Structures are given as C-alpha cells and as structure tokens.
Amino acid sequence: MRLHRPPNPLVLCYHAIGEVDDDADPQRLVTSPAHMESHVRWLKRRGYRFVTAGELAADPTPRTQTAVLTYDDGWRDGLTTVMPALKDLGVPATFYVCPGLWGRQHENVAGDAGRLMTRDDAAALHDGGMELASHSMTHPDLRRLTEDELETEVQRSRAEIEVITGAPCTTFAYPFGLYGEREMSAVARAGYDLAFGWVPGPWRRFAAPRFAAPPRHGALRLALKTIGIRRRVVLG
User: Fold this and answer.
1) How many helices, marked H, and strands, marked E, lie in the chain?
2) Could you read off the pLDDT of 21-58 as tens digits, one per residue?
3) Alpha-carbon distance 206 to 183, whole Å?
4) What CA–CA distance (Å, rounded) separates 13 from 215?
5) pTM of the entire structure?
C-alpha cells in the first residue's frame, strides 16, 4: 500500500447523474445523485474550495485546496438533476458538451438516462450559473481524424459554445481522454487555455489530469482514490 498527498487541484470527472439499471449502463457511465452528493460533501468537509475549469485555467496553481467538478458529454440530467443539486450544495461545475450531438441519445446508455441535452438545455444550464466548455463537436477519437477534421472539431465546438454563453470558451476535454502531441497542438491553436485528459498524472497545460469519480460508490471510495491507496494482489 502506498500513500501520497492528493493532487492539488483535484479535478473530478463525471458523466451522467441518475438512477439506472446496470444492464442499461454496461460501461458504468451513470452515477447516482446520492453518490455524487456524498463526494461533494466529503470534499467540503476536507476544506476544498470549488471553482470552475475556466477559473482554474486563469489560476492553475491555487494556494488553497481546490476542487473542480466536470461533467462530460452533455447529458440532459445536467440541467434536470445536477444543477439543482449543486445549487443546494453551493458549488459550481463545468459541463463539457458536444454541440454536434444536441438532443441525441447516448450510444452507451439506454432509456431516459442516456438522453443528451439540447441547445436550449445548454443555454438554460449556462443561465443557471453553470459553466459550458468544449468536448469537441461530435465526440470522435481525435487521433483518427484528418488535420481538417481535427481543426473543425476543436474550433467549431468552441465557437458554438461562445455563441450560447457570450464569453470565451477557455477549456477543452479530450473525447475518451485520448490525445497525442498533434491533438494538443490543435487545441492550443484553437485558442484554449487548458485541456484535460482522463487519468491522473503530472500537470501539463494541454494534458491536465483528472480523477474519474467512482460511479457506483460514495465518499469512502473517493477518499481512497484521492489519497492514492493502491492494492496489489499477488497470485502464486
């Protein structure tokens, strides 16, 4: 067992928030509202200060323990479930949306839990005080695109989000957390200030680390992940 201090800032990544049967969510993309709220309450008890990804981009080395809540893919529950819960808890969040997928069904989650937000939903989320940011236009593996396709995915998504918010879109989250040097360069050229991958690691401006919030567990599992407990089972 190895322990180390949790990274600062701590950026948590969620997908959908709701109630769903396991057979409708085989990839475990849906976290229950109760588990999400337990994560946030635990971080608050630990003294974390919550900011948006955009605020973090402006100050990537905060002096206090800082947490950022991020939600990938643009699920409709961001408006119906997440925003009301976070307002009650008094914390902000950043929603990484794909403008090319407005109003569609997520390919990996069946039923109402898999519904993605419309453009109007995204505007209402912004009007409610939450931050919108770019997760590309259509959520492809950016590494497999041509140069022109890559530029379109990272630049057009930023422009469409800025039309909704009336403010610069400064952060990006790579679809599937997949990227290379070419993709990092494209994000930088598109005018973003910060981009997130998917897994913990060293802090890099265009490959910043995130922790996947435990979708089927509450605060205890999150605590174990953030203090870096790793268990190794040796079979012999």
Assistant:
1) 8, 10
2) 999 999 999 999 999 999 999 999 999 999 999 999 99
3) 9
4) 10
5) 0.92
